[in-house]
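User: Hello, can you help with two protein structures?

Assistant: Certainly.
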Amino acid sequence: MQRRRRLHERPCFSDPRGKLYGLRVTAFFTCVCAGGDSGFGLSEGRDGLRLLPQSSGLLSECHRRQRQVEFSATNDVYRNFSEMTLQELVHQAASIYSDKIAVCFDECNNQPPVYYTYKTVVNAASELSNFLQLHCDFQGIREVGLYCHPGINLPSWILGILQVPAAYAPIDPDSPPALSTHFMKKCNLSYILVEKQQINKFKSSFEIFLNYDTLKEHSDLVLFRLHWKNVEGSLMLNNRKQKYEKEEMTNSTNSGNSNEEKSEEHMDVRQKHCLAYVLHTSGTTGIPKIVRVPHVCIVPNIQHFRVLFEITQEDVLFLASPLTFDPSVVELFVALSSGACLLIVPTSVKVLPSKLAAVLFSHHRVTILQATPTLLRRFGSQLIKSTVLSASTSLRVLALGGEAFPSLTVLKSWRGVDNKTQIFNVYGITEVSSWATFYRIPEKFLNSTLKCELPVPLGFPLLGTVVEVRDTNGFTIQEGHGQVFLGGRNRVCFLDDEMTVPLGIMRATGDLVMVKDGEMFFLGRKDSQIKRHGKRLNIELVQQVAEELQQVDSCAVTWYNQEKLILFMVSKNDLVKEYIFKELQKHLPSHAIPDEILLIDSLPFTSHGKIDVSELNKIYLNDLNLKSECKLNGKEELWEKLQYLWKSILNHSEDPLKVPDESLFLNSGGDSLKSIRLLNEIEKLVGTSVPGLLEIILSSPILEIYNHVLQTVFPDEDLVFSKNYAVKRKFSDINQEETSGKSLRQKSVMTLSCDNELTAFTAVSRGSQILSPNTKFLTKLGLCSSAHSYDLISQTNIQNVESLNPPALIGTSKDPSCVAEVSEEGTYVLAAKMELHVRWRSDTGKCVDASPLVVIPAVDKSSATVYIGSHSHRMMAVDLYSGKVKWEQILGDRIESSACVSKCGNFIVVGCYNGLVYALKSNSGEKYWMFPTEDAVKSSAAMDPTTGLIYIGSHDQHAYALDIYKKKCVWKLKCGGTVFSSPCLSLIPHHLYVATLGGHLLAINPATGNRVWEHSCGKPLFSSPRCCLQYVCIGCVDGNLLCFTHFGEQVWQFSTSEPIFSSPCTSASEQEIFFCSHDCFIYCCDVEGHLQWKFETTSQVYATPFAFRYQEGSSEMLLAAASTDGKLWILESKSGRLQSVSELPGEVFSSPVVWESMLIIGCRNNYVYCLDLLGGYQI
């Protein structure tokens, strides 16, 4: 292949509708743009392109001949622009529209969007090109990896790589590392550009797979040189590799029976200017294939769509596809080669339908949208009709592809009255990137009021593309069923290790079609292959991966109604669905994860010994009917289906016995997330919302849940009560051994009061809360004026208390590395400047979900103590420095409540599942007083330093004020929902904030128990409120962080994409708010609700983060956080940059607490850990 001519040697194509080729091309595209009305398609032979009739009777023979002639005149033009490169198309547009906006990035976080002009994009690209040319020494194929999330710089980065010249190879940071590693290794990728914000994720994801050198930084990118290790054993792909490669070589060659003659000419991948980009197929059709795409293959797509969609500089195109999905190339370069604007938003926004619709069609007035039907369906039919396809929509063109096209009936139901959006069906495969055919839905079909069951054809070949349909013998057919083959003289890609490929090669698609009257209609995938979420998926691979799991005896996968992927499993032992989902996510891309998993006793077989798919579908249909049937015939059916849902969500599906009436959800294996699932399933079952149901699920037996739902659905029915369980836990239900039958107002065996025997101390608890209630002590140290929220002293203020801070513990850093699991010796190898070593660990007997309380006496700080409880019913006091257990006390039930210290320092207060609030002597663990509530106490207590009162919530829906010295309840208040989280006390103004699972946030007068104000958030509040001088903040299950003034006025809300169970934490200056979400991110906002940074972890984050000081004499702060997969993250609090990451050998729901150079945290492997922070970090 001859070396490509440079731009100035080319004819000018400044306007796709300009004088140079306007008449000829416009004539042709006028013909084809009529879509279904034209009845024509394109093909290409040795004599060039030709227009082929697709159906008879629609156009006269005269018109056909005329349009064939019109299109034949475009051949020379096609050959000219097909030799252009993608970057040359952009430079051409930039020379005309240099000051026009080329790219808009909207982070959708209440900040103004960022804009780049064409001049800015091109200049930034040139700078990157020069950088790469200076530092990259290419040997062989010229490719550069790009590891980043979508952002304002993305087009410049891609353009910069192309200008080197080199092909860009996108690596998705959210893709399974094993799959990405396979791609990089098979490409033999030598260089990769990594976005600076993703550096730590890159290192932690790939450290075990590859070696690398850090070469240089350029702007927001870092260039790495890759060195390869043997990774094949980790990819779960080798066993199938040879089989699939052999099949693909057979299917992808020219058929001897093809109507096209074989070409002697070849294309060579090693040519300097040949390649544009490199992708990989999903890996779900067998072994993932590498697809190297030349400029001459993709440029015809770009040019054709520019004219087909009539793109102008006034258009706004949305980058809907991820970079690893080749339609993104069309979106990028159709926009940037036309003077149009490309809109980019974060990936997280794309899964929020309402927010995305507002951004696209209200804020930015998008005119061109290319998407999969799945993406469109996410909006919901009502939003599609009212916004996306309304009469007033900005959307001119909607192109749907990547999956089976919706039926015309569905399509018409989506369109608003008088909507004028042009709708296209586009079809293609990655191996002949990107699109191959198009079909515009005729207006007459869209506007018809008659019901239309006609299937939508695949339509006409795009410029330069040849489409053939072959039967099972490889012969091209004109009618009947067959497989689609795609190609064209220059529509050629290189697969895997191909160095040269014959021009005009035809690739098998695996798509089966019916050809009727010259039109192709999609039937489905060959060999159990489907298209899901825009990507190809072989359901047999899902089955193979699942069968490799040790717990699975046998399994089968079905594609139910071409809508849902269902995995049926027979387990060898008790199988937990959540575990299986987690394992599948390690080895499969997101679009291959099943929608549902059904546990069954045995797989059904046909008489031939094969799996009976039809019988499996019947099993799922029965399951579906049971779960989703909204109309209930009576209370008996409600009870039956409630039992089914209970067992299904708790993974007790195979238990044939009835669920006992007294069964409690949490005691049966439930948790907060499962309770929300049960709530959603029940409301789906009954077809209406059930107020107050969540707290009933969390606190009451199944019979009371049934009664509660019964009152909503069948209000006239009599309630059913169990003889063995009261509706609410009564005082007499408390274990007599616990209370010893003594009065609540009994005299103490110790004479203690709030006014004498005071112990000066500092108490440190989750969320960077430091309590020093002895005012004289504070005044002496000059700190009293700094505390306002129940005398909480911020971490940086503690630096003034020299007696509390030993010299910083400085350690030697090792080379940067990734997450390392804890060893038996207790050493962690960490990612950056610091290391963590296990100082001690203490076995509590069962899971530790509570967070530690650290109490440091002022007189003898060496006797500092960690107080923590566990599921084993044990409350323990452990020496902070040595890990020696000072005492342990067995309480009446599980402990998830975190401990609170009394004002005098002589007592520890903690709640228990048995409904009691315990006051234990801090020096011995002896039970001093027990106060009974009417239900479980998971809430952690708060202490008022002005009065010594203890405030705590209960699942009985009450908040309590307790005087532990007088052993009495001062007041209690019904809060309108279960109080799961911990109260928060503010001294200025003097308010107590309490949140409920009923969605209520209350401000209470701490002295009287009267409501000051109340706000309904609409969704459950598991998060604890956190107050500062100006505001009070709280996280909500709907994914929002809410901020209020102390007078109840909502100031702002910040949205994440998943529920927030984590409680907020403020910086010492109270100018930053840190919190975490189940979307796996740690967030930092300022006090106005503006995002400062966010950091993606590897799992959901339930725990509350902890801010602490960098080192002695420094103002720099760090942030400690824990994700549920056991990883501990240390970040810079100002920037969110990762400083260190390590992993505990179990799940973590406990929140970290840091004191001096030690981090204390509980783990679900039954241990509480104390780790030394080495590297100059301390409070």
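That covers the first. Now for the second protein you mentioned:
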Amino acid sequence: MLTKFETKSNRVKGLSFHSKRPWILASLHSGVIQLWDYRMGTLIDRFDEHDGPVRGVHFHKSQPLFVSGGDDYKIKVWNYKLHRCLFTLLGHLDYIRTVQFHHEYPWIVSSSDDQTIRIWNWQSRTCISVLTGHNHYVMCASFHPKEDLVVSASLDQTVRVWDIGALRKKTVSPADDILRLSQMNTDLFGGVDAVVKYVLEGHDRGVNWASFHPTLPLIVSGADDRQVKLWRMNDTKAWERTKSIRVWDATKRTGVQTFRREHDRFWILASHPEVNLLAAGHDSGMIVFKLERERPAFSVSGDSMFYAKDRFLRFYEFSSQKDTQVIPIRRPGSASLNQGPRTLSYSPTENAVLICSDVDGGSYELYVVPKDSVGRSDTVQEAKRGIGGSAIFVARNRFAVLDKSSNQVLVKNLKNEIVKKGSLPIAADAIFYAGTGNLLCRAEDRVAIFDLQQRIVLGDLQTPFVKYIVWSNDMESVALLSKHAIVIASKKLVHQCTLHETIRVKSGAWDDNGVFIYTTLNHIKYCLPNGDSGIIRTLDVPIYITKVLENKVFCLDREGKNRVIVIDATEYIFKLSLVRKKYDHVMSMIRNSQLCGQAMIAYLQQKGFPEVALHFVKDERTRFNLALESGNIQIAVASAKEIDEKDHWYRLGVEALRQGNAGIVEYAYQKTKNFERLSFLYLITGNMEKLSKMLKIAEVKNDVMGQFHNALYLGDVRERVKILENSGHLPLAYITASVHGLHDVVERLGAELGDNVPTLPEGKVSSLLMPPAPVLCGGDWPLLRVMRGIFEGGLDNIGRGAPEEDDEAADADWGEELDMVDVDGLQNGDIEAVLEDGEVPEDNEEEAGWDLEDLELPPEVDTQKASINSRSSVFVAPTPGMPVSQIWTQRSSLAAEHAAAGNFDTAMRLLSRQLGIKNFAPLKPLFLDLHTGSHTYLCAFSSASVLSLAIERGWSESASPNVRCPPALVFNFSQLEEKLKAAYKATTTGKFTEALRLFLSIIHTIPLIVVESRREVDEVKELVIIVKEYVLGLQMELKRKEMKDNPIRQQELAAYFTHCNLQMPHLRLALQNAMTVCYKAKNLNTAANFARRLLETNPTNENQAKMSRQVLQAAERNMKDVSQLNYDFRNPFVVCGATYVPIYRGQKDVSCPYCSSRFVPSQEGQLCTVCDLAVVGADASGLLCSPSQIR
């Protein structure tokens, strides 16, 4: 049983297949009717109007209708296109068991537990006949597929066949009124239109189902006595033929196969009217399945193919399309299903064919085809047989057989003798051909290529479960087909792309261009080498592709017939040419073929070829968008004119501004009458003449604010005063005039203002506010003459409306008259620049060439020869290189270099991995310093953005310009040594806070230091240890000074400080300090210990030595401690960096992955209190501070 589709739902009581579409209706015990697409596996719709279980459901053969009958005594007719119930037929008095449409007349037959069968006319929506006669529930009723008969089965142990010929005659020639009157009585007495033809008695229990054979005069019935009976009928009688059980083969009268589900009962079985499909409904859903596989076994070799069909091996030649029968092959003898040929393997040199099937759990037969035999002989040649999962030819006269039980492969010769054995590298359940001497082994989730000679795996790949494999003609690529995916890989199984399909993949073949053509249940599709795919055409029935030659697809259908389908390959050849950068081919295809459609435009846009898409498009809006995307201002202007909408002009202005094409920006602003933007444009381009015209326009429009702005931009003070005066702002006008020293105006205005003259603030120095003079005046940005992109020159004459080129128009002024009529009727003709179609400056169009850097341009040398006579030599646009920051990060695992490149994210990840650092707050300013310090900035000229330049470490003039050095770093080791000296000095002088700050700054900088040699690496690591000891010691000493009221803790901290690894002068000071503290606290014994240690260091300072001796003398008189300290100097210990308690040798501890300070186990997972960076106990790979560590 081959399950095609399964659902999980409430109990399924009724099923009906659609005759044309891949749909099935399932009616549920819950009252819901589901409409499923069993090919896609999706629920299309659900209909929920019945009250209680729906036991019967049926699709109409040609109308978009279906009928349902339920336990609510209602029959409902639905239209699935309108998603609703059209009407309800009432009349039955008990549960309705089945409903069915007549294949020709507008009738529905229904059976019910009220012991009647009713026939309804669904067009007039009336009951036209009631069939009475059964005396128990009627379990089913159905029309005969051709004749005027109805068969019904009932729990009264009978099957009845009814003749409805009279009903048909009445429908065809409507009867007179008397007959119509009799219709009224039908409901009460049962009509005369249908009479019982036969009553079939023979079952011992109630009959559940009965059905006509679609073509033969047979009836099949099934009953509670667990028997299936076959009845034969003729015009006069019907009689019992045979008893048998389950799914069976009527010719042999034997059960073929039984299917069971654990814990589920089956309720309904339905068969598809057209194709080989069955469906069964059970307690928890339904399954759609096939009994037998329909894929023919075939093997293609060069121009020919061998395939198995109806007990014969056949031969087909693609070039001549000749199909011949070769030899008969053995028919499977066993009674079970799916025993036909599964796969076929062919050896052309020996003319031998291997046929594998599932007989005996997997076996093969070897036939040698006689050379002359294109035979009709019916004598079955005695084949050589053997057991094995799959068998394939691996060489001229050797074939491999898979022995699944031992996971071995047996290599045999044509006499069927084992030549060699070998175990496989993966637990394979099938083997396929992979070139001479190689096998492709398939496991559940992977495939591998195995070399039988050398016994090595040449490649393996994880894939979904692979069903079929197809090698390309040159054996360089392989397509691995699974149920819903296609994986394309190289001959060594290096993955190239994966395609996912929702509908099941059926077959495939490679065409001569290296495109994989494949079929799903309902489409022929293509897959390009880069993974792009698309539909070539739809299919009405599934086919199996055998070969693709140019635009012909050769295939076998499910009947085993050869078919040739002609396809249109233009689309995928076009895309392939784009992928392979065969631009001349693309050009000729655009010129000669009818490629168009939204999908193609979207594809070209997505792949970065908007300028090619331009030539397919007629719609102006789309053309405009594509032109902007490809930077083709010329076409954008033409389209904007056609569309003539404000928004499009605005977007054109933005793009033109981006390209520095001031002329078109001006034109676009003029079209939208956007005076503010125009004024500002004239200001930044320094076009004072036009600015003064803008002032006049504002005046004409009586736009006071616009006038004032323009006067401000022009730096025209008198004009500003005049505007303020005219608009009634006399005080402002007065102040403006007096500040700018226009005394004549000041006097006049002062007289007008009289007593209201505003006073100027005292002691303020005024500064002149004038617009800056532009550095660059006027025109468009300078343009280089570049090589035209292959698509531009070549396509100009195809696309529509591309203006002719006119070199001389390069200086043409852009713009259009502003139709601004002033009061005196003066037309503002000054801002004149009417754009004629032919006057588009050619240079602007060439801007588009910049977007095509990835084209394979001809070598530079040739281009220069060609252009010596032209006005100037052609500039070949350089391809953009990789940003330096990217080069720095690609090559480096050093956090400092990532930070310098501005890649803080990866720098933090590296530090976290190498040193377990989690707290990056102290490192933030260092990161920023590194980044800014490794770049410098150049100002080109005022209107251009600042250029950032990378500063490299170890750069020299003799180095190649293409080789990038690592970034220059602002921190280096010698700086740290200086800092260390300063910190030592601060410690000596007792400035502990300052010293601690310096030591912490060193420990925070070390992760971002880079040194060159291994020796320096060791020095850096040594520095970490030194600094860590000081940080810990100083933290304890500062803590001690805070504790005024806890003398015991003060003594402990002073004692621990002496166990930090300090420089000798500092150790002496620490010892002296501890001795003093303990002596004052009357702990003479401990003080004596410090005095002894101090004397052992041979102190150079006489005071220290003298004091130590005095303490020793005092202690010898009284060798005891007043208070007990947590301090045992005889037992070696380290101090916990967080709790400042001793961790004696042998006790458990955890350490910081960066500074290696030690902590009590409870501190694990906390932030290290010494370095304030890393997490205590974290895993880390260690400090990486030199490229030499990586090499």
